[in-house]
Amino acid sequence: MKRAFISVLLSLIFITHGFAQNTIEIQAQETDAFPIIWSKFEIPFISSKTYDNPIYDVRDFKVVFTAPSGRQKTVRGFWDGGTDWKVRFMPDEIGKWTWKSECTDTENQGLNKVEGDFTCNGNNHQELLFQKGTIQHEPGKYYLSYSDGTPFFWLACTAWNGALKSTDEEWQHYLSQRKENHYNTIQLVTTEWRGCDKNAEGLTAIEGTGRIKIHPEFFKRIDKKIDEANDKGLLVSPVILWALLMGQGRELSPGYTLPLEEAVLLAKYIVARYQGNHVVWTLGGDGKYYDDLELKWKEIGRRVFNDIDHAPVTLHPHGRSFVGDLYAQEDWYDLMGYQSSHSNQEGTVNWINKGPVAKMWSKLKPMPYINLEPNYEEIGFRIDATDVRNASYWSIFANPIAGVTYGANGIWPWLQPGERILNHGDTDGVTGWRKSIEFPGSIQMGYLAEFVNQFDWWKLFPANEILESQPGEEKFNHWISVVKSADDKIIVVYVPDKSDVKLFNSKGYEYSAQWFNPATNKYTKADILQQEFEDVKRVNFDSGEAETVTVAKISNTIQFAHNFENDMIIVLKKK
What we know:
- Helix content is 21%, strand content 31%.
- The chain is α+β, with helices and mostly antiparallel strands.
- The protein has a 7-stranded antiparallel beta sheet, with helices on one face. Strands 19-18-17-14-13-23-22 form a 7-stranded parallel beta sheet.
């Protein structure tokens, strides 16, 4: 996308304290030559005051934008060092917009009651985010979509430290490889946390754990990383407040250490800084959001999001915890994120297939359900590509299909060869990020996205009830997962191991069948049995005598056998 350092004439009007109407030229730093739809537009402000600690001294700085249609959108501005303040915004209509600022320091002539307008133009960027619009959750749907309504299947990669540690070359290589392999979302952390105590320049986001100070310079490298991800058509899911309560280094995580007031101030700052980008917010990372901490996190969410227009918001809970029933009615909460954790053992497998997500999705208001952290490939040197595929397919089929996230133990910490992961007790030998993105499971998740996107996947819902028997009840890791369309015209079955399978065919449809190999991305013809034979008595028209003949008819069951060496998926389509 073409970018330039330009001057934008925005007709700023001072109307406080008797100032005459003025037209002021302001510098729009590294913005598009003209404001364009579905792209970040930045308006810089110069404060008339210098503050000792701006996040406390200016409790609120907002801009209300009015679209050509008359709709209004409210966003916050943020301090960017010295007397520099900025507002970042993504216009979603073509035409003339107007805006007006509001500041709690009503005497600040540079921030309060400043007005302007701009004309938003069309977007010629080829990536879908810029053509179809930013990602949203439409009420009543179990999936995310672009603003034009096109469903968006989430395939994310976990690069918690990517924006904090990567060089320019590394980040470009990573983004390009993820894009080529059908990933469309990057999950990353926006502050220091237990897995990264400072960024590549040695800076931290804040200082202090009681009364805090923001370091704007820390965030400028993240600005660039998120911009570059978006420019490649990749959505970003920034973790705002990492919140794990246990483990070495937990004191580095702001969601754990900061009091409520400071957590809200930091979260508001980060949201204001990246609200002009294509994002889905992860308010808390790896946290406990229930019992004694439920009210705290609900309060943070309400104070950060309820009085502004914002992208979808989720929480990333600690392993095998489900908070859907606690947060589903929160106005700011849009996506049911969960973490199954990193195990191929019975407890975790059963939690995915028979646990709260599988049981509760149909009882709560419709939302996307996404496993934001299933098995990390190579974690503990015990999780391989098969485990990654198992957890991922089980997860997307345990609820209405919406998406899944991939992770590898060398990617999330942005590990270099020979480096050890901070505060995670890992032994030597973990593969670095550059080789990890080429792991088999990493590539196979791209196959998963290709496979799913061939269907109207948003119409496929869990349907294990059509299984005659569930082998997973006898052997946990043989769990078969079924999804189908409401009209039974498409049935998709994930079979993790060798098994004879029988499905009920209540409508008596005749199906064509095809196997998909999720390890190789190859399709083969599937042999299925869906006929049954019965003896019918009839009169022979030539002899006039009664006779018995055997006739075939479509059965009310479908039978097939999995005899392959790895997990497979069978696709049944009504003829």
